Amino acid sequence: MSDRYVTLMASLPPHVPSLFANRQTPISRLKLDDRLQMLEPQDAIDLALIEELLHWDRMSMEMTDAQMIERGKQTCDRLDNEFIKDIVRWRLEIRTVVAALRRRHLGRPVPSAGSKWGYGAWMKMIETHWHEPSFGVERIYPWLPEADRLLEESDSLALERLLLNQVWDYYGRVVGDHYFDFEAVVVYVLRWDVIDRWSRYNGEAAARRFDRMVESALGYYVSMFA
């Protein structure tokens, strides 16, 4: 355990356990960035890679599905930390599942074999079960029926809330016994981003964003990634 990470984590105010109980981030981004200057040089590079890939406000709406997938693969290749790689893979797989919901909602056919439309272990299952409500992966993602219903109803607020909560809960589960190490720092920063997104959220903005995302690339489906 690095003393600098003990000091870093001890300097950060804790997140409120429930996402929706957070009215604002516990620390400003300016102050958070100041604390993050304590990171080891390689850890700082790795965190920047993760944030560039996963944080909504650092993504380009011009990126295509194929470009997003390739960027995700390149990020995983550059990371040596398996804990962090698992987080990135999970987020990309969630994006793939929600992107599939969006594509089907728009009436598009099942993606052609070999096309670069998604990422991860569930692509073949989704393609095979395209016309089933939860693509055959409801056991893995039990919230899919609810997400499908909210998408059909164009209830962007409730869908945003549902998806953000999945990410929030996932971070809470995986952080486990990481308290004063780089892994704990990564989860703290990623959870900070979720709080920031929710605290700045409003229904009108969400509706505009929903309309933009409907025709946008894989990574930019409803709010998340989210």
The biggest beta sheet, please?
none
User: Would you tell me the overall average pLDDT?
Assistant: 85
Q: Kindly provide the radius of gyration, computed on alpha-carbon positions and rounded to a whole number of angstroms.
A: 18 Å
What is the domain tally?
1
The amount of beta strand, in percent, is under 5%
User: What proportion of the residues is helical, as a percent range?
Assistant: 55-70%
Number of DSSP strand runs: 0
Measured between the Cα atoms of the first and last residue, the distance is 30 Å
Q: What is the string of SSEs from the N terminus onward?
A: HHHHHHHHHH
Secondary-structure-derived class: mainly alpha
Shape: globular
| Unreliable residue stretches | 215-226
Summarize the structure.
59% of the residues lie in helices and 0% in strands.
Structure, described:
The protein has 226 residues and is an all-alpha fold. It has one domain (3-220). 59% of the residues lie in helices and 0% in strands. Helix 7 packs antiparallel against helix 8. The protein starts with a helix and ends in a 12-residue tail after the last helix. The model is unreliable at 215-226 (pLDDT under 50).
Name its key features.
226 residues; mainly alpha; 0% strand; disordered C terminus
Per-chain topology:
Elements: H1 3-10, H2 29-36, H3 41-54, H4 65-78, H5 82-105, H6 123-128, H7 144-152, H8 156-175, H9 182-199, H10 203-214
